[in-house]
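A further point concerns the way the authors explain their paired sequence and structure data. For illustration, here is how one protein appears when written out as sequence plus structure tokens:
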Amino acid sequence: YYIFTDKKGKIIAGGGGYISSKNTTKRDGSQTPAFTGKIKLSKARVSFAADGEVYNGKAYTPGCLVSYKGTVFGNDVDYVVQYYYKGKLITPSEIVNAGTYTAVIKATPGSTVCKGSVKKKFRIKPARVADGTTVNVNTEVNWGDPVIYSPASCKPFVEVTYKGMAMTAGEDYKVSYAYNKAVTEATTRNKPVIKIKGKGNYTGTAKVNFEILPYTFSDSDWTVIKDDGYLEVVNSADISKLKLKPVLTIDQKKLKLNRDYTLEYYTDYGLTTSLDSVAGVEDGKDIYFKIIG
């Protein structure tokens, strides 16, 4: 006979026979239970060492223990156990995922202490993502690079692990974003945040903040809308009457003038002589502009 106890001395598993402080010891050293006849398993006390354990990606030994009035019945001697998960018969090595498991316990034909059968359930708890989740932010180019502003909102890719175990998006967690539509400033009250909500073997929510840096314009970001390729100069002091204007796009999203950027006009290529008015500009004169984010 064998028996296992926890640190507090509580019996958590046993097998090979029966034992009790009330058993009677015979002259030959064998023991008889403190009761007579066969006890229905439905009246016995059933517990599982795995009940209440937290998902860790590894199989849990179920540790089924059946007893009656202090007498522990022998696993595979007095009873056998079959385990089911979501209605499917499984082996003990498949007791891995979070959820409720059903054990069908049946008395063996040769048992002298129990009879019948009984169904009992035990549960593996989902792991809390906030307790050990690491979130790495990916900017589509390199892991750890800063996130650059996009008018379409910034949704960086993430790589999520729980205590070293890789988590799968859609299966283990759902990702969402908040406050991710503007550049992060020193005075920004609500920092951009990634929320990882556990599902399946995981529960709870983990949050990680990230920084959004300003976008740096390049020549490939803008195009020019024009009628015949020439700037039409009107006799007006209003610089906004210039018909030739750049159109800026980032990630195929059009930016808005005076919200996302401003324009300055110049009469020289070096952008040193500012053009404050179009009045009096000679026909054929080149005009240059500068885009300021």
